[in-house]
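chain below, 127 aa
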Amino acid sequence: MDMSLVTEIVYLFVLAIPIACIAWTVTHEEVFKEPREYCIKRCHTARNIAERKFFYLFTCEYCFSHYVTAVMLIITNYKLLYNDWRGYIIAGFALVFIANVYMSLFALIRVDLKYARLETEIEEKKK
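prediction:
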């Protein structure tokens, strides 16, 4: 499927959204807390490096986003700039980059919201 460069860029920014969402949810949110804690424990106590690195990838949003991106590339057949294997490689790294920008912005927003919430609680206790 040949797409214009503008369409490819739009796909890049849109496909990065579910990648960021999945990677963030698995590595940070409460719904995956128990499996994540198990992976954290295993990445610190495993006997060999391969096992430690395997379990670590479920605790790091950057690392995990590479695997989510690989699955997304297989599902969507998305390629960036080239219509062959090079397009997959470029798309993969571009998607990881944009997804991690999204996750960084989300993390900053969450910190700001938490700070604002704490300030409000402090002000209410003073009254």
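The chain has one domain: 5-126. The chain has five helices and no strands.
thats it, cya
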